[in-house]
Each structure stands twice: as structure tokens, then as C-alpha cells.
TrEMBL record:
<protein>
    <recommendedName>
        <fullName>Late embryogenesis abundant protein LEA-2 subgroup domain-containing protein</fullName>
    </recommendedName>
</protein>
<dbReference type="InterPro" id="IPR044839">
    <property type="entry name" value="NDR1-like"/>
</dbReference>
<keyword id="KW-0472">Membrane</keyword>
<keyword id="KW-0812">Transmembrane</keyword>
<feature type="transmembrane region" description="Helical">
    <location>
        <begin position="91"/>
        <end position="115"/>
    </location>
</feature>
<keyword id="KW-1133">Transmembrane helix</keyword>
<dbReference type="GO" id="GO:0016020">
    <property type="term" value="C:membrane"/>
</dbReference>
<feature type="compositionally biased region" description="Pro residues">
    <location>
        <begin position="31"/>
        <end position="43"/>
    </location>
</feature>
<dbReference type="GO" id="GO:0098542">
    <property type="term" value="P:defense response to other organism"/>
</dbReference>
<feature type="compositionally biased region" description="Low complexity">
    <location>
        <begin position="44"/>
        <end position="54"/>
    </location>
</feature>
<feature type="region of interest" description="Disordered">
    <location>
        <begin position="1"/>
        <end position="81"/>
    </location>
</feature>
Amino acid sequence: MDDSRRNKYGQSSDEIPEPPPPTRQYFEPQQPAPFPPLPPAMGYPPAMGYPPGYRNGYDQQHYQQGPPPSPDMYYAPPHCPHQDPGPPSSFAILTTMMLFVFFTFIVGLVLMFLIARPKFPIFHVETLAVTNFSVANDDFTSAWEINLVVENRNFGANVHFDRIQSFIYFNTDDLLASSHFDHPTKDVTVKANEKGTIDIKLSTADYKQSVPAPGKRVMEEMRNIRETGVVPFSLRAFAWSQIETGLFYTETKHIQSRIICEDLKVHFEGDTGNGKLNGKSKDCVVDL
């Protein structure tokens, strides 16, 4: 036998056994490994307690849970012992007195300012009635009754009228009659924040000697305007008055003023000599 066909173990090729045929191996699929458990949620750690079935050694018969607490226990205010603040200090009493004196002084100043600076009252003609109005040739007659309202706007000050002298004009410049009241027919005193009335009566029959008769031009103009049914008049008056002021004592101020009420249009009734003021009252201007 040829030595070249021997291997390193001294075996010839005829003596070497043939290897068995390969076999097929089948592997069953394996299930994937389960995911690891999630970590516990962040927050407070789980409450510690006893394991189930553990007994702490106390007899349950001797320890029983009482009734649930009343809801009022959760809302009841805590009990605090009453503490007596004691009498106020002298500093607190002095501060209170100083504040009282200060506010009293301020109120007194306000009252003194309102009373010591009085305002003169305002006037307006409430009613005006004309009777026996006649313009014939060179003769002129008429009578006027005027209701003058006085409004006192003062706080704590009364107004007293001593004398009133009034004049009636045709239009604004032509004097027709006048009256002289050294003392009014009644005591005219208007209290604070109130209204009063002054009755004024004028007549050409009573004062022809003191007031000259109107000229021919004025009478002719009045006659022509009278035919239209509306005649304009004006009232002017001088008033001597006293204003009584004072909070703790009475102080009297004497004031002389001039009252001007213009454009007093009187509507006459047909051909009669009687007429009255048309429309609402007319305000007057006061000149001190």
C-alpha cells in the first residue's frame, strides 16, 4: 500500500469512515422576554404599615373606634382667653381731644365764611297788572300794581327792607309815575334761604304833582303802540335794606341797591284800559 495515501494517524483512505449525512434541526420560536416593571410614580413614598394579618398585640375588644367627629369641630374658632386692654393711655386721650378741637375749628371757619360774606338777594317781577290806561289828547292816566319777589340766597342771614322808591317807565327812558315808600305797607323781612314779596303800587292820579306829564311825542307813541295790544314798560327801584349776619353775635350791614326790571310787556284786553304781564316772570338786575 502506498504510504502517500495515509494520513498523519497512519490510516489509509480506505480505512477512514465516511461522515454521517447532516441532519436538519428545528428550533421552536421563543417568547420575548417581558418588559421590566415600571418604576413607582414620583411623589410621596408609599405609606408604611403592618403586613396583612399582623396584630399589634392590643386586644381589639378593649380598643374600639369612637363616633366620627362633628363637622363643627373643623370650623370652630380657636378659643382664646379674653384679654382686658385696660384703660386708654393719656397720649390717646390727648390725641382724641386735639382732633376734636381741630375739626370743630374747621367747621366754625366754614360757617363764619358762609355767614360773614352775605349775598344780596335776587329779584324778579312775578305779576304786573295795569288798570285805567288811557291816552287822550294831552291827558294820560294809568295805574300799576307790581308783585316783586325777593329771594334770599344767604345761609343764616336775614334781609330787612326799610325803604323802597320805585319808578315806572314807558319803554326804558320815559318816566310815567313814581312812588315813595318811607316805610313799606308791611314789614318786609326775608329770612335765610326763603322768599318774600314786595307789593308796589303806582298811579298817575296820585303823583301828578311830583312827576311831569309825558310830552306829546311820548303820548303819541304810546297811543300808536296801544293799538297793537302790547305796551312795554320798565320798573326801576331803589331799596334801602339791612342784612343781619352773625354766628355768635348779630352784625347788621346797611346796603343801598338799585333794581332794574326791563321789557315788561303788558297785553291789553281789547279796547279796555286793563292789561297784565304776558308770559312768565321777568328777572331783574341788581346794581349795588
